[in-house]
Amino acid sequence: MKRIAILTSGGDAPGMNAAIRAVTRKAIFEGMEVYGINYGYAGLVAGDIKKLDVPDVGDIIQKGGTCLYSARYPEFASEEGQLKGIEQLKKFGIEGLVVIGGDGSYHGALALTRRGFPAVGIPGTIDNDIPGTDFTIGFDTAINTVLDAIDRIRDTATSHVRTFIIEVMGRDAGDIALWAGVAGGADDIIIPEHDFDMESVAKKVRIGRDRGKKHCLIILAEGVMPGHEFAEKLSEYGDFHSRVSVLGHIVRGGSPTARDRVLASKFGAYAVDLLKAGRGGLCVGMFDNQVVATDIVETLESRKHQPDLSLYELNHQISF
Ligand code: ADP
Ligand code: F6P
Question: Which residues bind ATP (predicted)?
């Protein structure tokens, strides 16, 4: 392949810029041309496409968000949207596409591949919920942002002897809550992938109180229920001086960590290697610290992301 394009789609994630930089620079290094597509699949269909050169991706490795912008564009699930997208790609002489995004964006890449246009997916989402990789770009930054918030909330929780329910993003996945919860010494972590019993949560809070513990921190994944609903249900078992903190989109912004930048750089360069070799229909991932490519159809259809539930068990054993 001589000319490829790149887009970012779905929820933005810190490190997407580092991936855009890596794809662009590696492709140019390999003697290829690169086009950037603005606003994900919406921009693809609209033909919002421009050539990227070396300076276009300078000074972005340290920035959160995505310099190609992103969009949610449900119309791309339709045949009409996909055919229009392919028409635009052909108009610009583009032979392969790199899609950086989450699960939904991968489905767009899969649709293009099925229609005969080679697309390679790079996992970029704070949720860490994509099959085909141990870690996604943005996850490490997100959990460190949550961790910073937990540490701060712990200060005020201790001062006032309060229980905090800290609601974190993650869509249907509990990875952010799980990792940040263990790192932040959470008293309890509530995730969609594991049952919980409110009475036991309340008991845990009470035992902590009884032995003089000043703070109680419960990290709640948004996929379980909203923080305020959780606090209300908890209050049926006693008054724990609860407060709710919803971290929301704060967790999606900010400068990417070194780990996310390196991951993004590795994924970006590898995606170019694949397209250069004429290989599409793949998604890039990291398993046991090795960058690998898996078939996008097989990955989306027969694999399911599972968080590391040993962390849940670990927290149970060390957080009483
Ligand atoms: P994420 O990629 O972060 O999971 P979304 O689920 O919003 O975010 O998906 C991003 C975009 O991917 C959607 O707005 C749409 O343009 C495209 N997309 C999602 N699902 C499909 C699908 N089944 N077929 C084609 N495109 C899709
Ligand atoms: O997929 C990333 C994510 O931030 C999820 O954690 C969250 O549920 C969702 O996107 C929020 O979407 P929006 O930015 O459209 O409100």
Answer: 11, 72-73, 102-105
Among 12, 56, 127, 239, which one carries the catalytic annotation? Answer: 127
184 is an annotated ligand-binding site residue: no
Position 301 confidence tier, pLDDT thresholds 50, 70, 90 = confident
Out of 76, 127, 175, give the residue to mutate to test ligand 1, the one with the largest number of ligand atoms within 8 Å of its CB.
76
- 273 annotated among ligand-binding-site residues: no
Domain 142-252 annotated CATH 3.40.50.460 = yes
Residue 21 has what pLDDT? 98
CA–centroid distance, 298 to ligand 1, in Å, is 18
Rounded percentage of the chain residues whose pLDDT exceeds 90: 97
Q: Tens digit of pLDDT for each residue in 212-267?
A: 999 999 999 999 999 999 999 999 999 999 999 999 999 999 999 999 999 999 99
User: Half-sphere exposure of residue 250, counting CA atoms within 13 Å on the CB side?
Assistant: 13
d(CA 280, CA 310): 35
Fold match between 3-138+256-302 and 142-252? Answer: yes
The CATH number for 3-138+256-302, chosen from 3.40.50.450, 3.40.1170.10, 3.30.160.20, 3.20.20.20, is 3.40.50.450
* Ligand index nearest the alpha carbon of residue 169: 2
Q: Is 127 tagged catalytic?
A: yes
Cα 286 from Cα 279, distance rounded (Å): 18
Measuring CA to CA, which residue among 99, 101, 179, 105 is closest to residue 146?
Answer: 179
CB 10 within 8 A of CB 42: no
Domain ranges within the chain, ordered by starting residue? 3-138+256-302, 142-252
| Residue type for position 318 | I
Per-residue pLDDT tens digits for 195-215: 999 999 999 999 999 999 999
pLDDT band at 320 (very low <50, low <70, confident <90, very high): confident
Assess contact for 174 and 194: CB atoms under 8 A: yes
